[in-house]
């Protein structure tokens, strides 16, 4: 008999335990009205050569019950080996059914203007704004943002903490990572139909050998990030951008 359900349940408990411990620590240090929950933030697409960067924000409400979490036993970092695109999409829909959530994007043009780090924070800001507008009962003063990585969103006044590898430790951040990747991968599959030959349906715009070979053969297209090394070097060797 397979022990996969047991392993998945143990993994979910581990992620939830991290969040509970972090929240307890934050409240011990707060010395005033306690925080009620955590909003995990994660982004996807920073290293892609194409299109927008996508961020997601996710929190589990206090009303979440055991039956809710039973539907997301496979919750983990979006890059965990047991996931494929279909499984992430299914899990994303389950998460949306009972969590507070929002998704934000920063466009290719914004990435080229701001740089990828600042564009990722802009997408994260937009994800939080969407979560708060979608779920008005989520009081921003009662939640802490848990940022995957080392950077905070300076444009938001909410209390924030950073956590390197947060998507591997925190249930809220892992959930955000699932939403962000499922959303962006679906977007890249659609864009691959508009610009065939670059294999975005499988490489999501990252610098895989197949993608780099396609850039050399087909040229740079309008969706490629022109400030990224592989792209601007290819542009220097090639003709003007392919037309839209």
Could you walk me through the main structural features you see in this protein, from its secondary elements to its overall organization?
With 244 residues, this protein is an alpha/beta fold. It folds into 2 domains: 4-193, 2-Layer Sandwich (Nucleotidyltransferase, domain 5), CATH 3.30.420.10; 197-237, no CATH class. It contains 10 helices and 5 strands; from the N terminus they run H-E-E-H-H-E-H-H-E-E-H-H-H-H-H. Strands 3-2-1-4-5 form a 5-stranded mixed beta sheet. Strand 1 and strand 2 form a beta hairpin. The relative contact order is 0.17. The model has no long low-confidence stretch (mean pLDDT 94).
Quickly list its features.
244 residues; alpha/beta; Nucleotidyltransferase, domain 5; 10 helices; 5 strands; 50% helix
């Amino acid at each position: 008999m397979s022990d996969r359900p047991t392993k998945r349940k143990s993994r979910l408990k581990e992620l939830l335990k991290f969040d509970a411990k972090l929240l307890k620590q934050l409240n011990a240090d707060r010395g005033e009205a306690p925080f009620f929950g955590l909003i995990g933030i994660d982004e996807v697409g920073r290293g892609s050569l194409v299109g927008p960067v996508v961020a997601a924000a996710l929190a589990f409400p206090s009303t979440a019950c055991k039956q809710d979490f039973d539907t997301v036993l496979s919750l983990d970092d979006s890059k965990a080996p047991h996931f494929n695109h279909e499984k992430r999409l299914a899990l994303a829909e389950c998460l949306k059914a009972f969590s507070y959530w929002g998704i934000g994007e920063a466009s290719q043009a914004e990435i080229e203007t701001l740089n990828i780090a600042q564009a990722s924070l802009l997408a994260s800001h937009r994800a939080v704004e969407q979560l708060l507008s979608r779920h008005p009962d989520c009081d921003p003063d009662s939640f802490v943002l848990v940022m995957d990585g080392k950077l905070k969103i300076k444009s938001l006044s909410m209390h924030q903490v950073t956590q390197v590898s947060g998507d591997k430790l925190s249930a809220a951040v892992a959930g955000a990572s699932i939403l962000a990747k499922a959303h962006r991968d679906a977007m890249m599959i659609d864009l691959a139909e508009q610009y065939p030959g670059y294999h975005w349906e499988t490489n999501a715009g990252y610098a895989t050998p197949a993608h780099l070979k396609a850039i050399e053969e087909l040229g740079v297209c309008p969706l490629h990030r022109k400030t990224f090394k592989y792209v601007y070097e290819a542009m220097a060797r090639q003709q003007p951008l392919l037309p839209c």
